[in-house]
Design goal:
- Helices cover about 35% and strands about 20% of the residues.
- With about 270 residues, the protein is α/β, with parallel strands linked by helices.
- Helix 4 links the parallel strand 4 and strand 5.
- Helix 1 packs across helix 2, helix 3 (about 75-85) packs parallel to helix 4 and helix 7 (about 210-220) packs across helix 8.
- The longest helix has 20 residues, at about 175-195.
- It is globular and about 60 Å long.
Length: about 270
């Protein structure tokens, strides 16, 4: 998993969550010496000049190189096409646009971006208050691929001096499964130690895994949840069941990464 950003796409519509997403893209770009492409799809739906004015205000105090692109079409298609064109390594976007302009953003366009993108995506909620990240939940699931998200999660935590909250999440307490999960969690702990990142450890057993993760994140005041999501399907639009539930239900921002170089049938993607 790449932990260095060079090309960041910020999908933008006039909304609190989009503004939050762009502010964090700016901060990440400064830390990684990356470029930002701000993408506004169907600009005619916003008052003339509003997007340009908002973006320039947000970027005014930084030395980050950015451009604003305006496209017409289906937002998710334009985001994915730009990702491919730029070979982008991060997409940021808000989970909710204007209720009048984009009433089904997370249920439609954002879901398809999360499902089909090749690079990590951070979705910011309107409730995201912190500058950067202070507490990041790292769920550990019963799949070896769950470990692929550890390097990027720890890199973000180190950049922001955040704590990583490692959480085993599973439906039951089957001894053989729990033993495997504890091994994966121990490896994540070791990665945190090696990189000088603070961490905590928690075991969560709940039939509704996505709900349990969100509840735990709220309990500790987390501002980011880091998950894996499969991207293998005939249509290209597929997220693991639990990952889809979590992104749709979460009032906390989510970092979604995709499984690399492997094929998974079903599963939760955490």
């Amino acid at each position: 998993m790449n932990t260095k950003f060079t090309q960041i796409i910020a999908a933008y519509v006039p909304s609190p969550s989009s503004r939050t997403a762009l502010k964090h893209a700016r901060d990440l770009a400064q830390r990684h010496d990356a470029n930002i492409t701000v993408l506004n799809v169907n600009p005619e739906k916003s008052p003339a000049g509003q997007v340009k004015s908002e973006v320039e205000e947000i970027m005014a105090d930084s030395n980050v190189h950015f451009i604003i692109l305006e496209k017409k079409g289906k937002p998710y298609k334009e985001v994915l096409a730009l990702e491919k064109e730029l070979e982008a390594d991060l997409i940021v976007m808000g989970t909710h646009g204007s209720k009048d302009r984009d009433p089904d953003w997370i249920g439609g366009n954002a879901f398809k971006v999360l499902s089909a993108s090749r690079c990590p995506v951070i979705t910011f909620t309107p409730d995201h208050k912190n500058d950067g990240f202070k507490n990041i939940v790292l769920p550990i699931a019963d799949a070896s691929e769950t470990r692929q998200k550890v390097p990027l999660t720890v890199t973000l935590a180190k950049a922001y001096n955040a704590t990583v909250h490692i959480a085993i999440v599973n439906k039951n307490e089957d001894p053989s499964v729990i033993n495997t999960l504890k091994i994966y969690a121990g490896q994540a702990e070791g990665y945190c130690i090696d990189h000088g990142v603070d961490f905590t450890y928690k075991e969560i057993y709940n039939k509704n895994i996505s709900e349990a993760c969100v509840d735990y994140a709220n309990e500790i005041g987390a501002d980011l949840i880091s998950i894996m999501s499969e991207r293998e399907s005939p249509t290209g639009f597929f997220m693991g069941h639990y990952a889809q539930q979590l992104v749709n239900k979460s009032n906390i921002s989510v970092l979604t990464m995709h499984v690399k170089n492997t094929r998974i049938a079903g599963g939760g993607g955490y």
